[in-house]
Amino acid sequence: MEVHVSSQNTPSSSGTNLDPWYNNYAERAAGLSVSEVRALFAVASRPEVVSLAGGMPYVSALPQDLVIDAMNRVMVDHGPVALQYGSGQGVPRLREHILEVMALEGIRGSVDDVVVTTGSQQALDLITKLFINPGDVILAEAPSYVGAIGVFRSYQADVEHVLMDDDGLIPDALREAIVRVKSSGRTIKFLYTIPNFHNPAGVTLSAERREEVLQICRSEGILVLEDNPYGLLYFDGPPPQALRSTEDEGVIYLGSFSKTLAPGFRIGWAIAPHAIREKLVLAAESAILCPSSFSQLVISEYLETADWKGQINTFRGVYEERKNTMLAALTEYLPELSWTKPNGGFYVWLTLPDYLDAKQMLPRAVKELVAYTPGTAFYADGGGRNKIRLSYCYPTPDQIKLGIRRLTTVINGEIDLLETFHATGPLATVRSAQSFSAPPPDMD
Q1: 24: Cβ–Cβ under 8 A, 6 or more apart, which residues?
Q2: Which ranges of 83-206 does DSSP label H, i.e. alpha helix?
């Protein structure tokens, strides 16, 4: 008996030794790559390394008994429902609580307006999937959230960056980007923005600029995707009201419980114009059938019975102390450099001398037992070479001080290396380097 093997079920002869199926992937798979953030987690998890890299919330500040009690009540009162499939749009009870959360930022709506997702990251993926054809343009701040850039690349979008400063996205830069893209014949599908306590820049879009950005997008027919996981984690005072609070039809709003409760539940949400919402529900059902009923019911029980606003206040206090510790350490050890001064959220955006490369410097940092995220992770065009994102959310104040001291040792070492070899050719343009204050290595 002859056995015939279909060529469709065998690896392509032009594959690779590491992956014989390489040439069978869809073109969009080429946009999938390991980000600097993901690669750092393996290193940052080593106990001897001070990680200033990942944006992990300090979940230890959340009383475990509150969560355990909520879980127990869910299983006792709603066990069969919690362990079953649910609605693709999400549990109505939780969607009511989400409306209460969004009301703190001026957003009004109905239960039917809200779509619960598996973290706001899934909402970001689904919206990109719904709108993007290969070659379409997404406008995004420079820098922008690394997870968003990864999603945009996976759907073969072109990311056009828009400059920002300490007051957030610059309206004139947005106008210039729109003209630039349209003159090239490409189609802009939406503007992606993190207006509050930006990841990674830490800055907040001013109230005046919010209205101007919305006016620009209205006049140009550009949808706005407002990503706001950090908005309730303010320090001195709340940020301006959400973009969605003044614009229903032109803004999709993304929220999450990952930063204000715990990321392990993987519950986020979107509120969108009606027609978009309907397609979003269908896309979500196609992707995962439904979000976790158990997680939704536990969060709903927690919001109904616990002082969740008081717990957010606790988180604010924890993060503000750590932010202040980081800024004080930067001032002490790296006074010649510049950085943003966030009034909420998780991140400080550090600017190195323009002749330093944060990505190339990272192996030296790991050797010195400190981790950070290089700025190139947050640009689709390779920018950010001399930028560093520093996260103060997870390490303790003592660890933050130690991490900045170690980082200072790394920066000084890199500058000394460039000074030593600058006369050999390519490095001849290096300016005379400053010396930053740092303790001897044996004092760590």
Answers
A1: 11, 12, 15
A2: 92-103, 119-131, 146-154, 171-183
- Give this prediction's pTM: 0.89
Place of tokens 């649910």: 86
Is the Cα dihedral 282, 288, 290, 296 positive or negative?
negative
Nearest-angstrom CA–CA distance, 77 and 71: 10
d(CA 27, CA 323): 42
* 8 Å CB contact between 191 and 181: no
Burial 331-344 (b: 16+ CB within 10 A, else e): eebbeebebbebbb
SS3 for 428? Answer: helix
Banded model confidence at residue 22, pLDDT cuts 50, 70, 90: confident
The CA–CA distances, whole Å, from 176 to 181, 183, 383, 428 equal 9, 11, 18, 35
For residue range 402-432, list pLDDT tens digits in order.
Answer: 999 999 999 999 998 887 876 554 443 444 4
Stretch (H or E) spanning 168: strand 168-169
381 or 30: whose pLDDT is higher?
381
d(CA 418, CA 374) in angstroms, rounded, equals 19
**pLDDT digits 0-9 by tens, 176-199:** 999 999 999 999 999 999 999 999
* Rounded Cα distance, 375 and 397, in Å: 23
Element (H, E) at 252: strand 251-256
20 contacts: CB under 8 Å, gap ≥ 6: 11, 12
One-letter amino acid identity for 143? Answer: P
pLDDT tens sequence across 258-293: 999 999 999 999 999 999 999 999 999 999 999 999
Query: Which residue from 444, 376, 375 is spatially nearest to 410, judged by alpha carbons?
Result: 444
Give yes or no for a contact between 268 and 239, defined as CB atoms under 8 angstroms apart.
Answer: no
